[in-house]
Amino acid sequence: MGVAKKQSAKLTTDMFEDVPVLRRKWQAALKPGETLPRYEDVMLGSLGRLADHMVLLNGDHDAFAVSRTGRYAQKWLGDERWDIPMHVLPPDCATVLTEAASNAVKTSRPYQAVAHCVRDGMVRTYDVLALPTFSRWGGTLVGTYVNERGAQYNLLDAIFSTTEDGVISASTIRDASGAPSDFQIVHHNEGAAKLLKVPAQGLQWRRLSEGGHLLCSELVVARLREAVANGVRDQFEIDSDERSLRLGVTAFGDILSLTISDVTPLKRREASFRLLFDSNPMPMWVFDPETTGFLKVNDAAVQHYGYSREKFLSMKIREMWPQEEWVSHSQALRHLGEHYQSGRHWRHLRADGSEICVLTFGRRLSFEGRNAYLVAVVDITERLKAEARIAYMAHHDGLTNLANRELYQERLQQALEGSNADGKRVAVLCVDLDLFKNVNDSYGHPMGDRLLRQVADRLRAHVHGNNLAARLGGDEFAVILTSIASPNETSDFAGRLINVLSQPYEIDGNEVVIGASIGIALSPGDGTSGEELLRNADMALYRAKEDGRGVHRFFEPEMDRQAQKRRDMELDLRHAFANGEFELHYQPLVDIASGRISGFESLLRWRHPEKGMISPAEFVPIAEDIGLITSIGEWVLREACNEAVKWPDQVKVAVNLSPVQFRSRNLVQVVISALANSGLSPKRLELEITESVFLAETEANLAILHQLRELGVSISMDDFGTGYSSLSYLRSFPFDKIKIDRSFVKDLAKRSDCLAIVRAISGLGRSLNITTTAEGVETVDQLDWLRAEGCNEVQGFLFSAAKPAAEVEQLLFRFGARAVKAA
How many CB atoms lie within 10 A of CB 48? Predict the structure, then answer.
């Protein structure tokens, strides 16, 4: 016998050690570098008695099936079958197996869960450990260990023993006439003993006639007799020792079920509620939901609505509603729950007949023994006015009070939907003010704002009915014309509008004259959506401004084709830079005196994978517009310096700079970096700029040029003579070189004015000790004239077109020992 006890104790101890043993076995089977151990190493061979507790699952994440089960696991599942889907198992078992297996697979670690299974009212607790493994046949197998933990317990007893409410079952004792005369407690929970302030053993099997607690009072016993006699439910309250208890009674033949709740806090809250109700500054009332009559109103309601208290209490609630809202108010009353919060604002009438907008909040309560409803009122009349103002401001321009872009788009969409229904057209007019920038620059922005307000007044005066005028931003306006009969009608309107907006404006004693240009798009031909019409009208506006301003133009498909071509090029440009499609070609600069190559101008080329070579004249302006030119320019500088360092020491490289590169303000650092990384001497780098660098932020750009000059880099002015202020720029900055534009070289032998200009520039260069280079030299005659006029350098097709870097060495060899002649 002693041996048997020892074995039993050992078995129990082993059961407590099962989970850590299995965890160690899983960890020991895990080989370095592997995520999961092999199934065979964990689940086969040495499990022994633990095999009875295992459920083998296969599958992935939430879709598992049972492959094998041990004898203990089969009893737990209530199913001895193998190879069955999870859904045929008891739901509580299936849930915990899925949870454990899913989390084990997801984390690639053992996962422990706890299962609470209820059978015949008894709760059993089980440990569930899922061990994920991989099978040599593919897929994941999860060995899941199951074992019961601790003692069982009765679910109902557990629930009733933990609730704070009292639960009592009592049997009826009848007298000789068969009438209920007494009651005996046959079952109770701890909560009942605490609430009745009686020891638990003092309640069981006691009759109420024996006394000793609150249930023994004549009032309670009488109510219990009535419940048994009539077979009805009852609820009532009893008070004692500053406590209030609520009793719920249900009769099942001669068996009574009593629930006892302590409602003392509730009673105190109701007392506090009454105190809060009377002095609350928020209008409040209590009404009967059956009769809709007022039962009580507070002082705030009397003051806010203007009715006397006596009048209030004689009224029905609907007398406060506008008659046209009786139906909707009545429907809301019929659907009152325990709590109510209005989902919309309601209109209420005050005693003087004025209307207010309110939100109402309510809850059901017992008032003086009857079912009632408490309502609190929030007056939102002023808030709604403020919100309406805010909504108006959200849809209107703050400066001109015209519709803004958001309202414009909404109204345009509505107009298009209406035009689709009746088959008419909608016209979109983009209006841009001509010379408005001059007003801002000359008189200041306050004057510009007053001018915009007057423009808005004229638009309002001439855009009527269902049409709409809007300000989209700056000096850009737009007009929607609905139900347009013909393009001629739109043209006439646009002409009149240009005339109206071009009339002089009187502002602060000043006469201001501006103009207007208009672009027009008509539905459905120019677009069926608001976005499409506005875009096309904007393209037409661009054409109107190109055509001299003060005119209107209709959208044409060619405009869209040009815009699409530009959009395509923008997209291709972004890919080109990322894909390395740019390359540099080099055109020689030839010294006329020595006949040798003095340098090369680096020229950017774009080799499109489908379109071939694309001219810089096409893509450089677009690269400048979309902000790519700075990155491209940095690449050109680095590439040119890296290539030039391979050339003879006396040969320079010239790199063109875009005015946009000056705006980045890091141009000097970029040049320093390119020189440092390549090892090229600064004296061999020549930077070419155009006069447009001086058109904006002149002082800042001049400072950058001086910093570059201090590095030892040469600065050249390209296309000299084609701008407005070339001579003044030469005075502002000491250029190392000026390049004579090809337009003067082309007709050098035919036109005396071209010869005079070249002669003047060459002479200017000699006087200022500035090298002069002539571009576009294509004939020997041009070369002879340039030599005769004292030009220092030449470049052009006469010598060579721009060549890839690989051909530079050959060019240097060709020009190594020759006088200047046609190449």
Answer: 8
Q: What distance in Å separates the CA atoms of residue 356 and residue 380, rounded to the nearest whole number? A: 8
Nearest to 592 by CA among 812, 738, 791: 791
Distance (Å, rounded) from C-alpha 823 to C-alpha 812? 12
pLDDT score of 238: 84
Distances (CA, A) of 505 to 432, 457, 509: 16, 12, 10
Query: What is the pLDDT at residue 821?
Result: 43
pLDDT of 640? 94
What is the sign, positive or negative, of the torsion defined by CA atoms of 548, 551, 552, 554?
Answer: negative
Tens digit of pLDDT for each residue in 543-578? Answer: 888 787 888 888 877 765 766 777 788 888 888 888
* HEC profile of 366-435: EECCEEEEEEEEEECHHHHHHHHHHHHHHCECCCCCCECHHHHHHHHHHHHHHHHHHCCEEEEEEEEEEC
What are the backbone dihedrals phi and psi of residue 654, each rounded to the nearest 5 degrees, phi first?
-110, 135
pLDDT of residue 157: 60
CA atoms within 13 A on the CB side of 655: 28
Amino acid identity of residue 616, one-letter, is: P
In b/e form, how buried is each residue of 669-678, taking b as 16+ CB within 10 angstroms? ebbbebbeeb
Cβ atoms of 632 and 655 closer than 8 Å:
no
The two three-digit tokens of residue 703, written as one number = 């400072």
Q: Which is it for strands 737-740 and 771-774: parallel, antiparallel or unpaired?
A: parallel
- Adjacent-strand bridge partners of 356: 348
Which tokens hold the place of 759? 């002669």
524 upstream amide cis, omega within 30 of 0: yes
Residue identified by tokens 């006069």 is 691
> What per-residue confidence (pLDDT) applies to 152?
67
In terms of DSSP bridges, do strands 476-484 and 468-473 run parallel, antiparallel, or are they unpaired? antiparallel
Contact in structure between 60 and 42 (CB atoms under 8 Å): no
| Unique residue bearing structure tokens 């090298």 | 771
Q: What is the per-residue pLDDT for 62?
A: 67
Question: From the CB of residue 220, how many other CB atoms can be counted at a distance below 10 Å?
Answer: 20
Segments of the chain with pLDDT less than 70: 1-16, 45, 61-62, 120-121, 151-163, 241, 269-273, 420-423, 483, 485, 559-560, 562-563, 694-697, 721-729, 817-823
**What kind and span of H or E run contains 559?**
helix 557-579
Report helix, strand or coil for 445.
helix
Helix%, strand%, coil% for the chain, nearest 5: 45, 30, 25
| DSSP code of residue 685 | E
**114 vs 95: CA distance, rounded Å:** 11
The 3-state secondary structure of 85-135 reads: EHHHCCHHHHHHHHHHHHHHHHHCCCEEEEEEEEECCEEEEEEEEEEEEEC
Rounded to 5 degrees, what are φ and ψ at 488?
A: -60, -40
Sheet holding 243-252, edge to edge: 180-188, 166-174, 255-262, 243-252, 234-240
- Longest pairwise C-alpha distance within the chain: 151
User: Cβ(717)–Cβ(689) under 8 Å?
Assistant: yes
Model confidence over 615-639: pLDDT tens digits?
888 888 888 878 888 889 899 999 9
> Do 519 and 537 meet the contact criterion of CB atoms below 8 Å apart?
yes
Of 803, 788, 722, nearest to 755 (Cα)? 788
| pTM of the full structure | 0.43
Q: Which residue, among 461, 455, 492, 496, has the nearest Cα to 477 in the 3D structure?
A: 455
